[in-house]
Design brief:
Elements: H1 2-19, H2 24-29, H3 38-86
């Protein structure tokens, strides 16, 4: 999951650099630029959709990692207690 977070961040950073924007909303606003060809408009529109999906994926992955940490910490404590009891 951590690797997926890195991949998402890299993709978003690439869009930011390519389109000189910070957010998908800024990219969406760029669609109103009258100088863009239809292919460029389509590419940006598709990027906006993926960017929104990636933000949701990132939110879900972070939540999953937080839940995992919440479960893993008590489990590690139980193992430590058990190890101390056998020594």
């Amino acid at each position: 999951m951590r690797n997926e977070l890195v991949a998402i961040a890299e993709e978003i950073e690439e869009w930011q650099a390519t389109y000189d924007v910070e957010t998908w909303e800024e990219l969406e606003q760029s669609l109103a630029d009258g100088d863009l060809a239809s292919g460029e408009l389509r590419e940006r529109r598709d990027g906006i959709g993926r960017w929104e999906e990636y933000q949701e994926d990132r939110r879900l992955i972070k939540h999953a990692l937080a839940l995992y940490s919440d479960v893993e910490a008590p489990r590690e404590q139980m193992i430590d207690v058990a190890d101390r009891g056998t020594n």
